Amino acid sequence: MIRYTVPESQSQDFAKQGHAILDLLAEQPGYLRGRLARSVDEPNLWAVVSEWEGAGFYRRALSAARMAMYPLMTLMVNEPSAFEDVYLLDGA
User: Fold this and answer.
1) Of the candidates 76, 6, 70, 62, which has an alpha carbon nearest to the alpha carbon of residue 38?
2) Mind listing the domains of the chain with CATH numbers?
3) Each residue of 35-86: pLDDT tens digit?
4) What pTM was estimated for this model as a whole?
5) CA separation (Å) from 70 to 47, 49, 66, 75, 86?
6) What's the chain's Rg over C-alpha atoms?
7) Taking the CB of the first residue and of the last residue of the chain, which one, N or C, has fewer CB atoms within 10 A?
8) With helix as H, strand as E and coil as C, how does the chain read?
């Protein structure tokens, strides 16, 4: 998960770039699924969320996508972005 703080004036452009980033990530080995999300409580807070077969796949995909992600780097929230499941419960 990579979070972004996006001014309202940039939200439409950000959404387009977020789609392009997810499209690029989806082409990488190990990609499972992804989504672009916006906070309902803080509309300036966005996230690109992706799921991978493992952290190594994620890190290599970020390297492959860095040029597409570069224009959005100033909007990124500087925090860890790779998490692994320790408990998973799917709904029935």
Assistant:
1) 6
2) 2-75 (3.30.70.100)
3) 999 999 999 999 999 999 998 999 999 888 888 888 888 899 988 888 888 8
4) 0.84
5) 15, 17, 6, 10, 31
6) 13
7) C
8) CEEEECCHHHHHHHHHHHHHHHHHHHCCCCEEEEEEEECCCCCCEEEEEEEECCHHHHHHHHHHHHHHHHHHHHHECCCCCCCCCCCCCCCC
